[in-house]
């Protein structure tokens, strides 16, 4: 049995192991920690909502806007947009980015690192938007808070960037899991919407994180499902054509929602005008129809249990969809998943009621179509069919709904994508090609950090040395020589050690046994050999970061900087474009060792 020294279990060894693509045990440990942290954060966020509701909401219920006086519930949205406008939009533009879109942006372009100010803003903006009577959910804040807290753990431990990506997914899954009590849906949402990939190395830690997030939340709030729904079935297969029609209808609604929410004309209006429009529209609607306010889970539960009239359902479909879309277009950073589920359930219940009126004999209960509509709307808006199906299963605890659920979700997703031209709500469009998270090459290179493929056999040297010093440089059999320039004392050029060895061999042959001149010097920039321009890159960086940096034609390689204080930094290795290409093309996923450190680099 192998023996391990204490050094093998140090944090530095842990970091080195995480840099490789096969660091599954280490990632699972991080997943457990991430789930516990995110679960605690989500409990804290829900407690904040409950504490705020104690101040003025009936029965301290954050959803009980119907019990407020009309003047008060109409005043709340005006106060909410005022507070957000004054305290959020007076900050720098970078600090105003919140929610799921911010998480995807930080994962795509910042290696999963989150600014602290945005995370702090998400706490109070999430509370104000929900308790302020805007049509807003708590899932967006949950995902941002969980992902940033988990990523912050990795940043605090100075872990390589490839592990930060997994921690973001872990925090996302745990946030959804703790918010909805839906651990499976949390995992699928994280992989399908945020990470946009499915890999074993990501799945297992994300599953652990989602599990722990749910456990922490259940310790406080119990293990009851989010909604209590009676036993229902689709009944006759004659309902399937109507299921298809329902999917078409909801797909069109999803496209309408996205087009309004992403309307460029609305976004181009002055900020004060947009916020005023959001506040006034929500206030006016709340006076007569308070069901549009807040998340709407009470209305969702009533729709699933077939307890809402046609006029209320119609009001939820039209008013809540338009108000939520207008709030997003107005620049208010809200969570949309909760309101989207409410609109979908109401639309499904309306479709079911119409089917019951047209063809009463084989028609299923409208509550069944409310369930289907909820999943269809979520899947179509997010373009995440599998996450929507898992949410349908876990929220309703009704496995026999999955067959028509798959049909309606696929139809709604196709309708939204093909007929209305909408991509996923959170997928920001790019001018050319695919989103960074959809590029297979960048995905593969983002799973590994530079220590996995960098060349460690190197030696630093001055530009001018004596022949004896040159021979000493080669005693450790280095592959690279890093030539320091006398002007700034920083390595800027790389030379293959083989070139110096060849020159010394030719030099000794030319001397033919004669002693060299005492004042003889060797200029490493003058001897025959190919030198490459180099630039620094951090030890935590992923291969995707190194690949993008090497796109500069002037650079032939990167030297890997290790250390966190400028005066204490050291060079850990060299990485070339050829090493990255060989890793991507030739590394065997079953070969846990991956590319060897002593392989020659281009």
Q: Please, what is the average pLDDT?
A: 82
Taking the sheet with the most strands, its summary is: 6 strands, mixed
The radius of gyration computed from the alpha-carbon positions, rounded to a whole number of angstroms, is: 29 Å
Strand order of the largest sheet: 1-3-4-6-7-8
Number of helices: 23
Class derived from helix and strand content: alpha/beta
Cα-to-Cα separation, first versus last residue: 38 Å
From the spread of the alpha carbons, the general shape counts as elongated
Relative helix content: 55-70%
Tally of DSSP β-strands:
8
Estimate the strand proportion: 5-15%
Stretches where pLDDT is under 50 for at least 5 consecutive residues are: 1-5, 429-433, 588-602
Give structural notes.
The protein has 602 residues and is an alpha/beta fold. 57% of the residues lie in helices and 7% in strands. The strands form 2 sheets. Strands 1-3-4-6-7-8 form a 6-stranded mixed sheet. Strand 3 and strand 4 (491-496) form a beta hairpin. Helix 4 runs parallel beside helix 6, helix 6 packs antiparallel against helix 7 and helix 16 (366-382) packs across helix 18 (402-419). The longest helix is centred in the first third of the chain and has 33 residues, at 24-56.
């Amino acid at each position: 049995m192998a023996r391990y020294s204490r050094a093998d279990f140090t944090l530095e060894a842990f970091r080195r192991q995480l840099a490789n693509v096969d660091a599954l045990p280490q990632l699972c440990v991080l997943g457990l920690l991430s789930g516990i942290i995110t679960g605690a954060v989500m409990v804290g966020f829900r407690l904040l909502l409950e504490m705020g509701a104690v101040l003025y909401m009936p029965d301290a219920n954050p959803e009980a806007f119907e019990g407020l006086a009309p003047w008060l519930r109409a005043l709340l949205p005006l106060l909410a947009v005022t507070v957000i406008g004054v305290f959020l939009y007076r900050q720098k533009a970078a600090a105003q980015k919140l929610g799921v879109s911010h998480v995807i942006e930080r994962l795509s372009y910042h290696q999963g690192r989150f600014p602290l100010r945005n995370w702090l803003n998400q706490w109070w903006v999430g509370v104000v938007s929900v308790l302020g009577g805007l049509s807003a959910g708590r899932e967006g804040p949950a995902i941002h808070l969980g992902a940033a807290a988990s990523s912050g753990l990795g940043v605090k431990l100075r872990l390589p960037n490839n592990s930060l990506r997994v921690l973001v997914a872990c925090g996302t899954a745990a946030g959804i899991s703790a918010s909805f009590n839906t651990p499976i849906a949390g995992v699928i949402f994280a992989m399908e919407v945020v990470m946009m990939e499915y890999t074993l190395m990501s799945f297992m830690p994300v599953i652990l994180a989602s599990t722990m997030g749910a456990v922490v939340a259940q310790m406080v709030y119990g293990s009851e499902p989010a909604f209590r729904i009676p036993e229902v079935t689709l009944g006759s297969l004659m309902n399937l054509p109507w299921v298809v029609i329902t999917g078409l209808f909801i797909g069109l609604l999803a496209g309408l929602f996205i087009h309004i929410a992403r309307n460029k004309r609305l976004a181009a209006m002055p900020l004060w005008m947009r916020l005023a429009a959001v506040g006034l529209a929500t206030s006016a609607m709340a006076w007569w129809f308070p069901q549009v306010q807040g998340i709407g889970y009470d209305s969702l539960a009533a729709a699933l249990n077939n307890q809402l009239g046609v006029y209320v359902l119609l009001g939820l479909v039209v008013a809540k969809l338009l108000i939520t879309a207008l709030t997003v277009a107005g620049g208010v950073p809200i969570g949309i998943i909760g309101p989207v589920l409410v609109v979908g359930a109401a639309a499904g219940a309306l479709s079911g009621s119409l089917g019951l009126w047209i063809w009463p004999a084989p028609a299923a209960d409208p509550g069944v179509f409310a369930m289907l509509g909820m999943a269809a709307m979520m899947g179509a808006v997010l373009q995440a069919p599998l996450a929507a199906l898992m949410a349908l299963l876990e929220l309703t605890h009704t496995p026999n709904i999955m067959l028509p659920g798959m049909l309606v979700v696929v139809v709604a997703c196709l309708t939204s994508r093909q007929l209305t031209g909408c991509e996923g709500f959170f997928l920001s469009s790019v001018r050319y090609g695919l989103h960074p998270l959809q590029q297979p090459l960048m995905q593969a290179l983002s799973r590994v950090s530079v220590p996995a493929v960098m060349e460690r056999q190197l030696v630093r040297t001055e530009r001018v040395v004596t022949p004896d010093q040159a021979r000493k440089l080669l005693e450790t059999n280095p592959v690279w020589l890093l030539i320091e320039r006398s002007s700034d004392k920083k390595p800027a050029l790389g030379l293959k050690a083989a070139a110096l060895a060849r020159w010394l061999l030719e030099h000794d042959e030319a001397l033919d046994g004669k002693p060299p001149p005492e004042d003889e010097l060797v200029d490493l920039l003058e001897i025959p050999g190919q030198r490459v321009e180099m630039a620094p890159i951090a030890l935590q960086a992923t291969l995707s970061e190194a690949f993008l940096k090497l796109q500069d034609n002037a650079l032939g390689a990167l030297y890997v900087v290790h250390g966190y204080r400028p005066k204490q930094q050291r060079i850990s290795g060299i990485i070339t474009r050829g090493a990255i290409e060989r890793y991507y093309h030739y590394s065997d996923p079953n070969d846990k060792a991956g590319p060897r450190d002593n392989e020659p680099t281009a």
